[in-house]
Amino acid sequence: MSCGKHHETPCTEVLDQVYIYLDGEIDAAECEKIRGHLEECGPCLRQYDLDQAVKALVARSCGCDLASDELRSKVLARIRQVQIDEGEVEPEFSEDPASVREGRHLDDLRTEFAQVRNKASAQDRVILQ
Fold first, then answer.
1. Whether the predicted model's global pTM rises above the 0.85 cut
2. What does the pLDDT look like over 45-73, one tens digit per residue?
3. What end-to-end distance do the CA atoms of the chain give, in Å?
4. Short-list 21, 29, 28, 11, CA closest to 51
5. What is the DSSP string of the chain?
């Protein structure tokens, strides 16, 4: 999309980065370029407003759902297994991993869950709570 006017930052570049801008995951220089473009370009500002509204609607509609304990445990177990498979971490048990997965004690799972939760990003923590 382009409004047909010349801008220092092209409309397509701004619209490609609008969600990164909305999430605050863009460096200060790029942020300033996008902000300046939005101030002078009505069509891009309207698209930005629409994307901002969609993001707010999704957050409002989905932001309150908490994962069940069962789902949370399955996700964490899978993350741990991928970390082990990729060699990022060593298994915490000396036994065969398959038998360990089947026979872990609840305290071991709680400890592992706490470790993974502490390493998770802020956004991931909302899901894991």
1. no
2. 998 998 889 888 877 777 666 777 888 88
3. 40
4. 21
5. ---SS--SS-HHHHHHTHHHHHTT-S-HHHHHHHHHHHHH-HHHHHHHHHHHHHHHHHHHHHTT----HHHHHHHHHHHHHHHHHTTSS--SSSS-HHHHHHH--HHHHHHHHHHHHHHS-HHHHHHH-
